[in-house]
Amino acid sequence: MNSEQILALTDTCVKCGLCLPHCPTYRKAVQEADSPRGRIAIVQGLLNEQIPNTYSLNRRLSRCLECHACEAVCPSKVPVTHIIDATRAILTARQPRYKRSLRYLLLNLAVRPAILLPLVRYYQHSWLRLWIQRSGILKFLQLDHADNLLPEYPIREIRGG
Ligand code: SF4
Ligand code: SF4
């Protein structure tokens, strides 16, 4: 789906707000940007290049749980999750090549635990983690949230103890 097609879908939203009380992320954050209507407005702003593509706005889109609760109550049948997915695909395609390559590498590692787990253990218990966290690289690559979600592995497991 291209930008024009996505924008045509966003135009079906009449901004009535009926979906807001049904959206779990809106109920938790109580912020328009974390609601279905707010996410549609973000998509319109980004694809029309009226607002800059920032880390913070990307987070608002990626926080969508894809639960479809908004779509179930929407009188206009706006396909909110489809709009968000298609927009994120476009935004990813617009990223610089090195960022896409790194994401591809990490996704491939994620399905290979035999390789990934020793690397994670080493990362967690070496100087590397502190250095990377302080360098700001994680935030730049939008991986700081993923870093916070990493389960902690005991150091003895590195040595197989
Ligand atoms: S997504 Fe549907 S329910 Fe939500 S504001 Fe738009 S038209 Fe209304
Ligand atoms: S699909 Fe996303 S925007 Fe819609 S109700 Fe669920 S979390 Fe909210």
List keywords for this structure.
161 residues, mainly alpha, Fumarate Reductase Iron-sulfur Protein, Chain B, domain 2, 2 domains, 11 helices, binds iron/sulfur cluster
List the helices and strands and how they pair.
Blueprint: H1 3-10, H2 24-29, H3 36-47, H4 55-62, H5 69-73, H6 80-93, H7 97-110, H8 113-124, H9 127-135, H10 137-140, H11 144-149
Bound molecules: iron/sulfur cluster (SF4) (2 copies).
Description:
With 161 residues, the protein is mostly helical. The protein has helices at residues 3-10, 24-29, 36-47, 55-62, 69-73, 80-93, 97-110, 113-124, 127-135, 137-140, 144-149. The longest helix is centred in the middle third of the chain and has 14 residues, at 80-93. The radius of gyration is 19 Å and the shape is elongated. It starts with a helix and ends in a 12-residue tail after the last helix.
CATH arch. level architecture of the largest domain: Orthogonal Bundle
Instruction: Give the low-confidence spans.
Output: none
Full CATH superfamily name of the largest domain: Alpha-helical ferredoxin
CATH third-level topology of the largest domain: Fumarate Reductase Iron-sulfur Protein, Chain B, domain 2
Name the shape in a single word: elongated
Helix content: 55-70%
Briefly say what this structure is.
The protein is mostly helical.
